[in-house]
Amino acid sequence: MHNNSSLDSAIAEWKAMLGDRAVVRADEGDFGASTTGAKRAIPVVIKPDTCEQIPELLKIAAHHAVSVYTISTGHNWGYGSANPVKNDSVLLDLSKLDQIVDFDEELGVVTVEPGVTQEKLRRFLDERDAHYLVPVTGAGPHCSILGNALERGYGITPITDHFAAVTRIEAVLADGRIYRTPLSELGGPEVDGLYKWGIGPYLDGLFTQGNFGVVTRITLALAPAPETLTAFFFSTKDDKLLEKLVPTVREVLRALTGNVVAINLMNRQRMLSMMAPFPETQAVDGVLPAEVVDALAEKYSVTAWNGVGAIYASRDVAKAARRTLRRLLGPVTDRLVFVNARKVALAQNVARLVPGKLSTRIRSLADALAGALDIMNGRPNDVALALAYWRSGHKPEPGVAKDPARDGCGLIWFAPLVPIRGKDARRYVEIIERVCPEYGINPLITLTTLNDRCFDSTVPLLFDRNDPIATDRANACYRALFAACSKEGFLPYRLNVDSMDLLPDKESVFSSLTQQLKIAVDPGQILSPGRYVAVTSDRSPV
User: Which residues is 178 bridged to in the sheet?
Assistant: First the structure.
């Protein structure tokens, strides 16, 4: 922890360099709000205008031994939002670094800064009539492309793993030096942006889920827009069919490699969270009783398990893919529906013609399908972000961007990895359904295929953030889920700012090696202390 005089000196130098407007108190914005309930003492926020200012900013921080925590846009919903891991870290807010530095339309690679959002990249591509998909997520249009890739986030567009699409990284080390990959340093920045692995030891991975430098630019490959996009939706009424449905999903991905790249499976409570308002008066200690869930499921025609995926293909291939899906999914589903943009437009037109409540219902369904198709087509929207508001928070007025942290939503993501095997999926689901209600949390489960071997499951722990008891219980639920799932080998791919202590202890080879590397490149441990790499007492003088 820095002392006040060193911080004051650093602030004075930053203001002299950037101006008063670029160095502000945290309480002058929404920086301290977090959907997880995390609260940190944030002394000041620095908002540079250009990447070129970063080296000098970090030199000042290192000279005065002031810790700096980097955010891209600060919209890390469910994992801490803009909050650092440790108290008294200065926030380095890179949201104003929002340049799309380079774009090769012929080869489909783009170089972006931290402040480039999903929406901005989509608008950039549309202005050039460039037929590529943005690597979207459900976090919303105003979230950082770079930030999500460095958290090793994923989506359901053709390049599912977003860090897999990153071909080149540029970062600033704690002493102000600029890290570039060897091919760039050898004079080949263009080929460096076309080939992920470069030459020599692969170091780019150190800058993901870590604290070894401040990444100022990434180059990533974009997936070309397909000739056709067809979404498919399927459902299974019988929960006992899960063990058969899961290996069938694996078989679909293997049979249609390259055309069907990801599939989501959702339990009925997860589906209800998208379709029905939360019935607060019917909840018991925050949890919906089985009979209430049954009644809602019947009212909204929601089944035990529900799936969604997309076919990216030419017309002829898409036609063959539909036949394959009918053959494989038919025996384990009760319904399989194919939807494309033409069908959605037709439904929207029908809604205008029919009267009363039927019109509202058709229009609502059509709009939801249109939102889902946009996401699959690499067009960001905030449809999925509505989930954060199911239990708490105040939805903003139409036209105002959703911001779950600002709007008072209580959300913690638990995101473990689960093998795509029927018996493993069942063991995992039983844990979630047992543990969550013990802490007043409804068990909402999504299983998303990362490949044909492994699911990532996202379980939103939704709670009333205005209630300190509910907030504490939700955070306790996260730890109880971690403990129960880890015993069965289901471990998260990502942690929130309050759970970094769950990483292997300092005696493990992993922790000792990362700490050695940290001391080598950041001897004062000023960069994002505690973020995936434990702080050690071995702080070398700067």
Answer: 172
Length in residues, the chain = 542
The predicted pLDDT at position 27 comes to 76
Contacts 24+ apart (CB under 8 A), 20-27: 21/47, 22/46, 22/47, 22/48, 22/49, 23/47, 26/91
Alpha-carbon span 453 to 420, nearest angstrom:
5
Q: Which residues contact 360 (CB under 8 A, 6 or more apart)?
A: 351
Q: How far apart are the first and last CA of the chain?
A: 14
pTM beyond 0.85: the answer is yes
pLDDT attached to residue 2: 62
Q: What is the DSSP letter of 183?
A: H
- The helix/strand/coil state of 393 is coil
465-502 confidence digits (pLDDT tens): 999 999 999 999 999 999 999 999 999 999 999 999 99
Q: How would you label 322-359 residue by residue, b for 16+ Cβ within 10 Å and e otherwise?
A: bebbeebbeebbeebebbbbebbeebbeebeeeeeeee
- Cα 198 from Cα 183, distance rounded (Å): 6
Half-sphere exposure of 199 (CA within 13 A, CB side): 10
Range 369-374 average pLDDT? 90
- Alpha-carbon torsion angle 425, 429, 430, 435, nearest 10: 140
Is the pLDDT assigned to residue 130 strictly greater than 90? yes
For residue 419, which phi and psi values (nearest 5 degrees)?
A: -60, 145
E-assigned strand segments in 340-476: 409-414, 417-419, 446-449, 454-464
d(CA 55, CA 74): 21
- Report the C-alpha gap between 496 and 479 in whole angstroms: 11
pLDDT at residue 214 greater than cutoff 70: yes
Ranges assigned E (strand) in 226-289: 228-236, 263-267
What are the residues facing 418 on neighbouring strands? 455
pLDDT confidence of residue 28: 63
* Mean model confidence pLDDT for the chain: 94
The residues with which 169 forms a beta bridge, in sequence order, are 218
Q: Give the pLDDT mean for 161-169.
A: 97
Question: Contact, 411 vs 405, CB < 8 A?
Answer: no
Q: For residue 65, give the nearest of 145, 110, 3 by alpha carbon.
A: 3
- Bridge pairing between strands 109-112 and 100-104: antiparallel
Distance of alpha carbon 542 from alpha carbon 539, whole angstroms: 9
536: left (phi over 0), alpha (psi -120 to 50) or beta: beta
Residues 287-311 as b or e (16 or more Cβ within 10 Å = b): bbeeeebeebbeeeebbbbbbbbbb
Encode pLDDT of 31-65 as tens digits: 889 999 999 999 999 999 999 999 999 999 999 99
- List CB contacts of 273: < 8 A, sequence separation 6 or more: 387, 390, 442, 444, 460, 462
DSSP assignments along 468-506, one per residue: HHHHHHHHHHHHHHHHHHHHTT--BS---TT-GGGSPPT
Give CA separation, 198 vs 68, 193, 223, in Å. Answer: 30, 9, 21
SS3 for 267?
strand
CA dist 542 and 527 (Å) reads 13
